[in-house]
Structures are given as structure tokens and as C-alpha cells.
Write a structure and sequence with these properties.
The chain has about 575 residues and is an alpha+beta fold. Helix content is about 40%, strand content about 15%. The protein has a six-stranded mixed sheet with strand order 2-1-6-3-4-5. It has a six-stranded mixed sheet with strand order 8-7-12-9-10-11. Keywords: 4Fe-4S, Iron, Iron-sulfur, Metal-binding, Oxidoreductase. It holds the Pfam family AFOR_N.
Length: about 575
Amino acid sequence: MTGETREQFKVLVVDLPAGRGAITSLEGRDSLAGGSGLTAMLFDRYGLPDRPWDDPEQPLIFAIGPLTGYFPLMSKTVCAFKSPYHDQYAESHAGGRSALSLRFAGFDALVIRGKALAPSCLSVGSRHLELKDVHFLWGMDLLRTGKMLRRMYEGSGHRSILRIGPAGENGSAMACINVDTYRHFGRLGCGAVMGAKNLKGIVILGDGSSPLPEGKAYPKLFTEVYRKMTDTDMMEKYHNFGTPINMAILNGISALPIRNLQKTSDPGIEGITGETFARDTLLRNAACAGCPVGCVHLGFVRERFMEENRYLYRQVSYDHEPIFAAGAMLHVTNAFSVLTLLDTVEREGLDIMSAGVALAWATEALEKGIVTTRETIVPLKFGDETAYREGFHHLGAASNDFYRLLAQGTMKAAEHYGGADFACVLGQEMAGYATGEVFFVSQALGLRHSHLDAGGYSYDQKDKEPDVDGAVRFLVQDEQARVLLTSMVSCLFARGVYGDQVLSDCLRSLGYLNLADGLGDVSRNVRKLRWRTRLRTGFDPRTVSIPKRFLEVETWRGRIDSAYLNALKDAYAGAILALGEEDA
């Protein structure tokens, strides 16, 4: 690669109605890096802020970073779109093989525009673009769809398959995009964007090559980074028990959302701790492409298919958030029952975090008489795996008006039926942490409404007195550090390894000299561009509300301080508006 093209992004722009694509080179590498920065730039170029999310010309964007394929854990792909959840700019991140496949296909980003004329699967590669009619897959569940697509598109290793289930076809704001079976673009409804474009699947064929840099600097640095990932205990947590280790930890400090956040601690969750899953259900570990850590934990479910005790076994991935959403939040406290529910949600193509929290709200609404079984169809009851299996199916299938509305977001259903006070929504359905005020504000106002926008959950666990200025300063600075990593598309589990100096050294070894010298400017540029893009599509942090249920929470520090929460929310909203207006 020459010095001239190294500073440019190579982007494949696909026109679905025409079934054709065009490759374009764009400036901006030295100021935006890739990933989160590149997707915001591409939305700024191709997005239509004043048109609805399902307008055919709205882009669906996938982007990687400059270190993808060259260093460990640079394994994420950033997906950007206008969200059906709030009709504003959104990001979702996923692992799997998609990032490496894009690298070997020779592209920094894929931009998909328009709507296919029939239900279709798009396949792209370095010398390949095909749009295939797959109307026979429309209506098929996500797992069967994956089996069919694997038969239709040969190859492995550098081939990545993205697909949606019925939820995406039905326009659910909770619809995810499944990536290579065990990973997901989970949040804010990107699966519905695929569905609106008549895309059942996307296959990325990494059929090209990506030469390694010459000289001794790169292999020496790679070896050192790899050693830090594998020979030290820095990543041991993620490989051993994985993130489910958080279940017992959060329960022990009264910070685990349980039973629609009516409780934050319960000895009954012993049956769904990370230790229990590892002891009773774990089959094996897996990893995203380019990752030596192996944080993907696979348990199993079995399904009886003959009376003579004949069973089919399926592998199901689990992490802290899925266990929280299908387990603690629904008070399902058996590990195999949780895996069965995760398998059910997977078939529908739903984001488990949103789907689990939504059914938790529906269960409490049914208990309180706000809705009846006329709406829920099945008598949802905390702890009832069988009822929740049916409920998840109805949510994915949009079986009636109630589930159709609930699939657009818990708060939309609550505003229609009542029960907004106990809707566990922080911008979108909450993540699996009830640590306190800083986390609640961080997710509610964060750009992705994600617990990973900034480490508010960790700040809450420090023994500090309420400090609005200090907390806001932490959130702003932590977001800036994280957005640099998501522009490099690093897995955030590696943030302890990829400090600024290591990132700079990695970039230098690949010839990105200007980018290596300007990482501080890059993080500020990307943060500013993302917030400006989000605000331009209608986001106003001052209008975000935090439901009453969050004020009733008891943690290890005591009851939530409502005055502190509200002051923190107002101050952080002001900081976000200031970030979006910088040098405008």
C-alpha cells in the first residue's frame, strides 16, 4: 500500500435496487482513524437526517479500523444507521469474523443504500458483488436461515455471515443482526434496518490478501502485544468464567437488576452465576477472529425429538448481559432454563437485553392489572420459563397490537398502556448493572445508550461522596478514551493493553505515522463528530427522563439520591451539548 492510499479510506457503496456497487476513496484517515469515526463521517456524507429511519436511501454502514487484522483483539466492526428505536443516529458494535473478512476483502467500510426489489442476500468480496433473491428464507427463523446461507455460500475462515430473523423482517426496534452465530449487532434495531432494505443476509467474503509490513519492528511489537494478552493474568477473567462472573459480584453488592429491578440482591440467583454456568453448562470457549483470549462461552440446550429419549443438542453463547436479561430480570434462576430462553430469543433475531427487560415490564404490568392476558396472550409470570418462551416468540413475531408496540420499545408501550414509572429504560432498555446514579445517567444520556459508552458502573463502585463536577468530568474523559478504541475497533476488554503509547507504536509499525502522532486530536475529532451527528438527527439530552423505578433502587451505598441523580443528569446534558457545539 502506498503512502498516498494509506491516508485514505477505501469504501464500497452498494446500490441495492441496481444490484451494483462502486468503490470510492475518501480522505480522513489521519483525523478519524476508522470505526466509530469513519461511520460518523459516512453517515454525514450519505445519511438523511430529516427523513425517517426506514427511508430506502438511509445508509446501513459497516466499518473497521487501521489495525484490523494486524494486532490481537482489533476484532470489532462498527455498524451505523438511523435507528427505528428513536429515529436518530445510532451505532452498534459486534465481533465475530466480520472485521477480518472486510479487511481481506480490501475495504475499510461497506455502505448499503436503497431497498432490494425482493427479499435478498448481498454477498461482497474483493472481486465480487452479487444480490441473490432469497424470498424462500423470508419468515424463516434466524438459526435455520444461518444453516441455509452456509450451504449457499461456500468458504470458511475469512467468510462472515450476517443475518436477521423474523423480528428484523417485522421492523422491530429490538431486532439485532446476528454475526457468525455467536456475536451480534445487538442494540437499537439495526436488524430492522436490514429488514426494511429487504436484506435477509449479508455475506462478506474475505477473498483477497492483506500483506504484512516488512522489517523487524512489526513482528517484534506484535509478539509483545500478544504476550500481554495471553501470558499475563490481564485477560484471565474473560477467558475463565467470562463476564458472567459479574452476576455474583453485583448481587453481592446489591447492584444486580432482579425481577424488573424490584430488587438488587437475591440469594436465589445462585443458580445463574458465572460459576454455576461454568460448572454445569459450559461446553467450550470460542473467540472472535484475531483474538487469542476466547471470551465467548458456549453452553448447551437439548431438545427431545423422539419419545424414546432422543435429543438434539444446540450450543448457545452466554455472557453477563444475556444472563441478566433472560435470568435475573425475569427471575428465572436455573442455568439451563436461561440458555433455553436465549436460544428462543436467538431464533427470533431479537436483542436479548431489550427483549428481556421488555417482558419483565410486561410481567409486572400484568401483575398490577395494567394489561391483561388479552394483551400478553400468555400469562407471563416471574420465573416461568415456558411462558417466557412463548412471550419471546410473540415479541419477535409481533403477534398482536400489544407485542407490536412493545417491540418498538418498552417506554412506548408504557406510555400507551400505563406503567411508565416501572419501565426500566435508560435511553433504551437498561443493561445489567444497578450500581447507582452515575451509571444510570451514563446510559440514559450516552450516545449509544450503552453501559460501554463510559464506565459509570465502575465509578459508582468507588467509595466517593456525591460529586457532580467530578462525575461529569470522569464520564467525558472516559468516553473520549473509549471512542479512540472504538475508532481503532479494539475490543474494549483490551483497553488495559491498548494505551495511547501502545496504539501509537502499533500504528507506526504499519506506516500510519501521521495518525500515530495525533491520537489526542483523533479522539476529540471523533467524539465531536459523533455527538454533532446524533444531535443533528434530533437528540436532545435535556429531554431524557429517568423513570421512577430507578429512584427506588437500593445499592450497597443505600437508596438512590434523587437530588444527586437529577443534578448529574442536567450537568451531563450540558456537557454533551457543549461537545456537539465545539467549533461548529
